[in-house]
Fold this protein.
Amino acid sequence: MNFLDEIKNLKEQIKSKDKFDINFNFDNIVISGMGGSGIVGNIFQEYYTSIPVISIGDYGIPGFVNEKTLFIAVSYSGNTEETLSNVEDAKKKGAHVRAITSGGKLATIVEKSIIIPSGIQPRSALGYMLMPLFNTFAPIDDAIVSQTYGILDDMDKNHSDIKSEAFKIYENSSIPIIYGSKPFKSVAYRWKTQFNENAKTFAFYSYFPELNHNDTMPLKSAYRRDEYLFYAFESDNARINQRIGITEEITGEQFTVVKSPSQDYFSKLFYLIHYADYLTYELALVRNVDPTDVSTIEELKKKLA
Ligand code: F6R
């Protein structure tokens, strides 16, 4: 599959029915993953608030992990050092350990893994890795999944506006700064990582309302202010939208406000994710860099091995 086909495959991935079979009680969920796999835990943690959910993208597990913890390791390759070491720690603490992976060592050390299709970039497998969490803990209506499929398909067929935007970023050598807000702060971070890995550019992120307590100052008076390009996600929360407007008004900075064509959480989530898939893919093409190339990340992993 070429990279464009991997991007287009997202709409198929959201139809996944994979789920965990859970027949024990637990008090909290800890999700461990890095990079393109780690974002899965961040997205889920922000959405699912019925019980404590902690997403870790680092070495080391929280001190509270015990036999009442459901510990889920997410690693596309199944060979990510930080995640594997956290699995060992969670086992020692007696946690119920599960995994989502395409194989690797993880599949061999965690008995009850959900095995997803291999052969694509981890960051292109977001749907495969995220759906088991929704399906197990917060199932999405089939009608919503179909609607989301349609929205993603429309973008696959025509995203010329996003392509023009990528060209604008390229022409001005802009550094994108992405401002999310709940429950899509994690998506702002996903945008940042897609700029990094696909387009090989720096990008930064923050979120409303927090940025009104810090970023708001340089928005008005930073040096090299013209080098940045600001994105904000339209919110369901009227106060957040007001904050976007007032921040623009008092700083004189314009944000590109990204609005989903639909209202429900799930389709908004994937609309925003897919938007950045295309923005960063098109930026890679116009910059003449290979969007699939992650050789420097791989070189680093090899040197650490
Ligand atoms: C994304 C990517 C990286 C990996 C990360 C962890 O496409 O290549 O961000 O996701 O290095 O590796 P995995 O996902 O295999 O655990």
Q: What stands out?
A: Residues 34-37, 75-77, 80, 83, 121-123, 197, 294, 297 surround fructose -6-phosphate (CB under 6 Å). The chain has a mean pLDDT of 97. The longest strand covers residues 69-75.
